[in-house]
Amino acid sequence: MRGELFSRCSTKNASAEAGAFLFCYDVYMKIIAAKDALYVSKPEGTGVHYYLFKDYEVHYNEQAPHTTQGWHHHEKIWETLYIINGELVAKWREANEEKSQLVKQGDLIETERTPHTFSNDSDQIVSFLVIKHIPSEENHSKVLKTDKVLD
Length: 151
What we know:
Layout: E1 6-10, E2 23-27, E3 38-41, E4 46-52, E5 56-63, E6 67-68, E7 78-85, E8 87-94, E9 97-104, E10 108-110, E11 116-120, E12 126-133, H1 141-146
Antiparallel strand pairs: 1-2, 3-4, 4-5, 5-12, 6-11, 7-10, 7-12, 8-9, 8-11
């Protein structure tokens, strides 16, 4: 759902050579209700709500007890997982060696392009977010830390 339209104008990007100019753009707040997300119940026991955008995706996952996702990797994207509730066993392969680690509520995992899978060995549903994005060679950390304008 698209929120109310606001117009915002700024001279922040004006160069001294070009003189001041007014840059205006429309600002919308987007709210997507869970009922409007694409939902898929995967055969290996994970239910996923997909929130799809042109530059990234956010997936809300609920993995059933005593289930394991299929081994996979990604050639062009990275996945970042945040464990909301419960515990998973993260498994990955490095130099033909399988490794694993228990991840818990509040833990964050970046899969990069590593072959990986996740197992829920518990008796409870595990909920976690997955953010899929295309990595960039540019370091945007300064912008991410400082891009907040008080209104």
